[in-house]
Amino acid sequence: MELISPDFGFIFWMTLAFGIVFFFIAKFAFPVINKMLKQREEKITEALEKAERTHEEMEKLQAHNEILLQQAREERERMLNEARQSSEKIIEDAKAKAKVEADRMVESAKESIENEYKAAMTEIKNGIANISIKVAEKILQQELSKDNAQMDYIDKIIKDAENQ
Amino acid sequence: MLFSTQNFVVAENKSDEEFKAGEVIIEHVLDSYDWHLFTWKGHHVGINLPIIVINEGRIYSFSTKRLHDSATYVTTDKKTGETITFTIPHEGQYKGKVVILGADGSQKRPLDISITKNVMALFISCTLIIVLFYLVMKAYQKRGEKAPKGLQSLIEWLIVYVRDDIARKAISEKCVDRYLPYLVTVFFFIFINNLLGLIPIFPFGANITGNIAVTAVLALFTFFITNLLGNKEYYKDIFNTPGVPWFLKFPLPLMPIIETVGCFTKPFVLAVRLFANITAGHIVVLGFISSIFIVAKISMAGGVGMSVFSLILAIFVDVIEILVAYIQAYVFTLLSALYFGMASKEHHKE
Question: B140 to chain A, minimum CA–CA distance in Å?
Fold first, then answer.
């Protein structure tokens, strides 16, 4: 049957035509296509790897940043604490100093008041003594003529003084 | 694939002749010397392809037109001066083929390498494939490593598919590059010819991959590539199969005979499978279309009703044929790849 018996002429042309197609694809088209496909695949793989690496580096960098940030935070905390402490100390010191100073001032004021008081008392005493003396003098100068009374009075004073 | 409506129109016009569906279908799936397009007012309109025959070392070439309707073409052998008469008989052993008519009415078949309808269609499809690959190659050269575009991306998808899902799965990594160009060629050749065979409009629609000569040549290519590039281990497997009892090899070399026969049956099966699948598809679609004309002979209304029914079925089968076009290309390529893989694999050292 013709359907299943291959015709020689057609086999001949088929071999020729398919041979040409095969030759063209195998010799020219396919090497170019295959080369480009391979190159592109390599490029894609490379790019992916690069992206992966970059990602890892980024993560590392981020972790590093995190550590730095943590350190900075701790540093700040520490500095704040220190500042607080030192300010407290300064205040404390100042307070203590002020207290000492105030005490000292109060003390000296007291002392000077005492001194003043003493001096004033002495002065008053002196003044009173002087006045007394002057009064006494005046009285004495006035009353010296009246002998009896004068003598009585002096006696009385002496007696009073002796009684005291 | 409805190309054969052309043939049916012929059959219809020859009103006194009976419509023979079987003949029309077989006529389509076979080859012919001219490419019939349609019939206009009783005249055949088609392309008269050249007949090329070789007789006793001399090439004769003339148009098919000269042999239409049982006409004879008479020429003389320039060397011997003998008259040679060519004709195409309508019956007998050489029905529908160019023969040399002897003086006593005997028929002798010369070496026939005519550009028939199938050969013409083959040239057209091969040109298409070469143009396709040329364009894709240029696209690659132009675009370099950039992402593929348009036609390039469609072809690339198929090439990558053949490479990754067919070749690399069947053949060891080291040998893939050696076989890949052939596998790509054979895949595209079968796939494109299958698809073109489904297009009913000229210059497509010929039954190329459903021709045993085409599939036989493809299978022979696979056969030669398998056996010529086969390694030592492959031949050792054939002639001294390991792991088989000695009495199967000596004194009667049973296993070597079976293995050697296997080498030939593998490509034979490849050829028959592709041929049978594609031809069957064409025959089924034509059968549905033919049934319209058969019913229409009996009653016109029946013909109209039948045409709707048959068209739906024919379209359905055509759609399946598109799938078959791909599957058959895939199967042929995959089996070729498996044979190559077997012929090139390195055994593990025991």
Answer: 6
